[in-house]
# Entry
Amino acid sequence: MKLLSIAVPCYNSEAYMENCIKSLLVGGDEVEILIVDDGSGDGTAQIADRLEREHPGIVRAIHQPNKGHGGAVNTGIENATGLYFKVVDSDDKVRASAYKSILDVLRRFSGEEEPLDLLISNFVYNKEDQNRHKVMQYRRCLPVGRVFSWDEANRFPIGKYILMHSVIFRTQMLRDSGLKLPEHTFYVDNIYVFNPLPYVRRMYYLDVNFYYYFIGREDQSVQEDVMIKRLDQQARVNRIMIDYYTDPRCMEMIGDRKTLKQYMFNYLEIITTITSVLALRSGKEEHIRLRDETWDYLREKDEALYKKMRRRILGRAMNVNRRFPRMAVISAYHIAQRIFNFN
# Structure
């Protein structure tokens, strides 16, 4: 068994995927790199096959019909042989020194009777059009350099969340959680770092800058205009997260872990805010309707949860009437823009 499986979803990634894979090869024989060619129409498949030939036993090329990012991640989980599992997008990379520290920690816990469920590290936002970067770290939120549980975690400030770039899950725990991401849907990374959390018991935060997340390409899914065009998919992810959080089985798994319950509430609130603020930014009738339908869906699922979220500052700001003073709406948008790094 490998120590770590890394899935690299690739769709028409020929221009940059080798830079990503090169950074992952530093892990050596303890790591398997699963290149999931998601029905690409360019040279991605050929590059994946060549890298498999050049690095036998480390790189595996998996080809499938196009299923979207979620479908590629699902395939990675299904095919992983590593004790732990991580997703690295094909246009990103990892830092070698931090990578070695990550593997040291995973190796240390691999033989323990009580396994580590989640390893968290820092990630770095790199904007292509700006000569600067922003480190997302968790020093004030989580104990550093030791095993801890949710009860020992501090409250996360608004705008700071555990994202896909931050996490390495225990593979079997992911499978036990029943995680299955929707296919042909953007923004499923939010489900990936939300649904498994009730199954996480033992965590470790390593304060190193491991993952480098490159943003700023015009076609990237997190660009504001692209997100508005795909608002229906953002709303779909929003509803799936509402379904999960309001499911009695989820509440049973969370139990009396108040910090976890509050963290998941806050995360759901942020996702609902993103859906709403993009609808306000667009102003189109169809998008305003999506916002209203999302809030109505929340109310149908759990009225108490709806009222709690609706009463809070973000809930009030995101439910303003379209005739509300434009400056107030724009101010609310710019607050969310600073929080979520909209471009």
